[in-house]
Structure formats: structure tokens, C-alpha cells
Amino acid sequence: MAHDCRRTELFQGEVLAALKILQRGDLTMKDFIGAYAGEIGQTQFLPSSYIKYGVDFDGNGHVDLRHSIPDVLASTANLLHTSGFKMGQPFGEGTANFQAMREWNRSEIYRKTIGYFAERLMGR
Asked: What is the mean pLDDT of each run of 10 residues along the chain (124 residues)?
């Protein structure tokens, strides 16, 4: 996607961020697997978000958003907190929390889906 004429600048930056993740040793080449647009890990961070919000919560010296559940949860919480998400507040469409989730994914349907599953997990 770094050569796709529609969003070249965005994805060229993501390629550089991906190389930085490899250089830091957070993931090995064999573990460097992502979705078609370059999202990595259990909560699908773009490489730039991986670097910006990634947290080594398990204390092993590396941010591993593929295998380390503590790193995944802490990194996702860090992204949401940094973006202004407020615990205990509504997160449906039109709320401040819905807008805060935009940093995670700009797609409204993605954010609505996250909200739907969060409601189901809370038993609503």
C-alpha cells in the first residue's frame, strides 16, 4: 500500500514504522504478520500506533502485540486513554468516547462493532 497512489504518504510512513518495530526487536520477521493494510496484533494497530502507544506491560523488554496479552491490553488502554476515552462513560455513536476511539480506527462501522461487542461483554 506504500505504492498505492491514493495514500502513498501515509503508508510509506507505516513501512518505516514497521522497520523500526523490527529494528527494536519487538517482533521477529516470522512474527511480523498483519492484515492487508498493515495492521499488527490482536487489536490491529498500524505500525505507527504500535510505536506510539505500545506498552511493555509484561516487562520482558519488548512490546509484543501478537503474543503478550498484558502488552496488548495495556497498549490498547494507553491508546484509548491518550485519545481522551473516559472509563464508565457512554461510548456509542455521537459520544466523546466514540470520537476518542477514532484514533484506533477511523471507520464508523468498526467503532460501532467495538461498541456492540463491548455491550455484549457487559451483558447488555
From this structure: 62 88 92 79 92 97 96 96 94 92 89 91 87
Whether residue 38 contacts residue 11, with contact meaning beta carbons closer than 8 Å, is answered with yes
CA dist 39 and 10 (Å) reads 13
- Residue 108 has phi, psi (to 5 degrees) of -65, -40
Largest CA distance in the chain: 44
Quote the strand ranges of the chain, DSSP E.
none
How many residues comprise the chain?
124
The rounded radius of gyration (Å) of the Cα atoms in the chain is: 15
Give the residue from 99, 100, 107, 108 showing the smallest Cα distance to 76: 100
The cell numbers describing 39, all together, are 495492521
